[in-house]
Design a protein that fits this description.
By secondary structure, this protein is an alpha+beta fold. It has 8 helices and 20 strands. The longest helix has 21 residues.
Length: 424
């Protein structure tokens, strides 16, 4: 008997967990409580009966809402990563598991981005499932959540309702527009295999020295002629080479851009440069030395670009680069959320960079960022060339040369190939 009672209690609590009263249900409950309290003060039995009836109606509505809809659904999204201008195909199918799968006042809601569609499911039977096919235009860069498909049951009066998710949410990434840039600048001077470094390596191209064999060394690196002369095993060590590496940064400070369209142009420049670097098989990273993210796949990189948004920023003149990326000093009482505890600051408050390992900096900023801030950042990485691209819609595109950096102004997307050609 006790076991049966416990099972019943667990079942009721589990099914009622997703049940909530609507605003009308809470109003009815409050009215019933007020009637009972008033009847106790004035001695009116009619008010007590009205309040008790209100509680009974709400209780019956809550019991009806706990009925589980015996439904199953599938959600098929064709293409979770698309380009701007493409279409997203969505197919949803709702199937009834029983002949009478739902209670009265049952419906489904289907979320697509910021829109929600309502589907009546009372007529669904095992022999007649409900199919929904949609074509969504991908006309802007965004991350569009599709789903979940939620079945909601309740009472006819709308006092209580219960929602059950039939599918999960699928995020569709709409990639920014990719422009043709042509080959990127090389950056630092390097040889065919890369720029030689000072650290020895166990496997590379240029022989550095010979050392005594140690347990665990690969026998393929043993230099047998020298070992035969000396009578002991000698292992080759090589001079490590550093290939041209690119560090890509994007300013996310909302005050750096004159309009939202200008930020979209900046994201287009940022994505186009990153894709071109990956096409050239150049080592690409986004972030400073304490929060560096190496990028190996163009699709993953573009998925991140789809979710980029501006931030209010610590102050109007502080650049906030693509998180988790280099960030300047925060304003009073503002933490540096984009940097970690191991970040080392230079004399001007900016994060120090391992410039020796970076061949080229590509920094995309807005038209409202002061030139003094741009020059200050360029000086922090003066050991490596810096190319700063200003997104400035309506301005004349061109290239300005400086002692420590090159400032590229892009006034329209079609001008990017021409200004990049001027850099080579």
């Amino acid at each position: 008997m006790r076991t049966t009672f416990r099972r019943a209690v667990r079942h009721v609590s589990r099914t009622a967990r997703g049940s909530i009263l609507s605003s009308l249900g809470w109003a009815t409950t409050a009215t019933g409580l007020a009637c009972i309290a008033t009847s106790a003060l004035l001695g009116w039995r009619e008010l007590f009966a009205a309040g008790f009836a209100g509680f009974g109606i709400v209780a019956c509505a809550a019991i009806m809402a706990t009925r589980t809809p015996h439904l199953a659904a599938t959600l098929d999204v064709r293409g979770t990563s698309v380009n701007m201008g493409d279409t997203i195909g969505v197919t949803a199918c709702i199937i009834a598991k029983r002949r009478h799968p739902t209670a009265t006042a049952a419906h489904c809601t289907f979320r697509i981005g910021n829109d929600t569609r309502r589907i009546d499911i009372r007529s669904i039977t095992p022999a007649s499932p409900h199919n929904l096919t949609l074509t969504i235009p991908a006309d802007r860069r965004a991350v569009i959540p599709i789903g979940p498909l939620v079945a909601t049951t309740g009472d006819p009066l709308g006092l209580a309702r219960r929602s059950v998710a039939l599918t999960s949410t699928v995020n569709v990434h709409v990639h920014p527009r990719i422009l043709r840039t042509g080959p990127l600048p090389i950056g630092v001077t390097h040889d065919l295999e890369g720029r030689s470094g000072s650290d020895p390596a166990s496997n590379d191209l240029d022989l550095y020295e010979l050392r005594d064999y140690a347990p665990g060394d690969d026998l393929r690196h043993v230099h047998w002629p020298s070992s035969a002369k000396t009578g002991s095993l000698l292992v080759r060590r090589y001079q490590a080479t550093q290939h041209t590496a690119i560090r890509l940064l994007l300013d996310l400070n909302a005050h750096s851009y004159a309009a939202p369209e200008e930020f979209e142009l900046a994201v287009t420049l940022y994505a186009s440069l990153g894709v071109q670097a990956l096409r050239e098989h150049r080592p690409l990273a986004t972030g400073d030395d304490s929060h560096r993210i190496r990028v190996h796949d163009a699709n993953t990189f573009l998925d991140r670009c789809s979710a980029l948004q501006t931030s209010p920023g610590a102050c109007n003149t502080t650049p906030i680069f693509h998180t988790p990326i280099f960030q300047g000093p925060a304003g009073p009482g503002q933490p540096n959320s984009a940097t970690g505890p191991n970040r080392s600051d230079g004399p001007d408050g900016h994060a120090s960079h391992n410039a020796a390992a970076i061949s080229l900096y590509l920094v995309v900023v807005g038209s409202q960022l002061p030139l003094n801030d741009i020059r200050r950042f360029a000086r922090t990485v003066s050991a490596s060339p810096v190319i700063l691209l200003r997104s400035a819609i309506g301005e004349q595109s061109g290239v300005a040369w400086d002692a420590v950096h090159r400032l590229v102004t892009v006034g329209a997307p079609k001008d990017l190939p021409f200004v990049m050609e001027a850099l080579r």
